[in-house]
Amino acid sequence: MATEVDRVRVRVLPDGRMNRKDAAAYLGVTVQTLCNWANLGREPRAVVIGSRAFYYQTDLDRFIASEVARPVGMGRARRAPAHMTA
After folding, report:
1. What does pTM read for this prediction?
2. CATH number of the domain located at residue range(s) 17-71 in this protein
């Protein structure tokens, strides 16, 4: 089964880092989601320089691979959306 993948343009610095906005686009999540993950201590690991957070592309690729390899149902428990509860 083939799936379509959207291409995104991100800026990767010469040392392999990208800022939080580009890292979020690379992962297909919002910047707020990356902030939330950082506050929870969840991967991917951010490198903070001054007040700015950066993510290495290799760390993001490793994170993607680990999420793909995770068996279904092994994620965090999530609350059902309001429209699904009675």
Report:
1. 0.70
2. 1.10.1660.10
